[in-house]
Design a protein that fits this description.
Blueprint (H helix, E strand, L loop, with lengths): L2 E6 L6 H10 L5 E7 L10 H18 L3 E7 L3 H8 L3 E6 L2 H17 L4 E6 L9 H9 L10 H12 L1
Parallel strand pairs: 1-2, 1-4, 2-3, 4-5
Catalytic activity: (R)-4'-phosphopantetheine + ATP + H(+) = 3'-dephospho-CoA + diphosphate
Subcellular location: Cytoplasm
Keywords: ATP-binding, Coenzyme A biosynthesis, Cytoplasm, Magnesium, Nucleotide-binding, Nucleotidyltransferase, Transferase
Length: 164
């Protein structure tokens, strides 16, 4: 069984993330969505909320595909998380050249830690390349319409968060 790991903070999950998840399902039998606990970041949503949003989106994707999707929170090294879930492939989404520079360094470090785990880069769909969780949160905070960037349940969660 080919297992892939798609890691991120998913704060919140966007249509860009959903696009990568759907396309990654064609590459693996099981896709683990690693929801990162990153103490260096200050997420808008707590871990439980982020996991719930990701799970809801993944349930819909899994219903349309033949593969299995598992949502897995993690706080350790990415390469250790990949080992923990049995992943032989790490899936990373790219939006722009700036993403590649960071990801290139990450791949080098991960290969030094465990050369048996490959990293696969997937370019975001052209319609989704500008979507970044950080920008989506900023638009929502300022009362803008984020419906082009997230699903309705995530939009509602953003609106509730900023209203409260």
């Amino acid at each position: 069984m080919r297992i892939g790991l798609y890691p991120g903070t998913f704060d919140p999950i966007t249509l860009g993330h959903v696009d990568i998840i759907q396309r990654a399902m064609a590459l693996v039998d099981r896709l683990v969505i690693g929801v990162a606990i990153n103490r260096d970041k200050s997420p808008l949503f707590g871990l439980e909320s982020r996991v719930a949003m990701v799970q809801a989106e993944c349930d819909q994707i899994a219903a349309r595909t033949a593969g299995e999707i598992v949502v897995h929170p993690f706080e350790n090294l990415l390469i250790d998380c990949a080992r923990d879930v049995g992943a032989s492939v790490i899936v990373r989404g790219l939006r722009a050249v700036a993403d590649f520079e960071y990801e290139f360094q990450m791949v080098g470090m991960n290969r030094a830690l465990d050369a048996s785990i490959e990293t696969v880069f997937m370019m975001a769909d052209a319609r989704r390349q500008a979507i970044a969780s950080k920008l989506v949160k900023e638009i929502a905070r300022l009362g803008g319409d984020v419906s082009k960037f997230v699903t309705p349940p995530v939009q509602e969660a953003l609106e509730q968060r900023y209203r409260g």
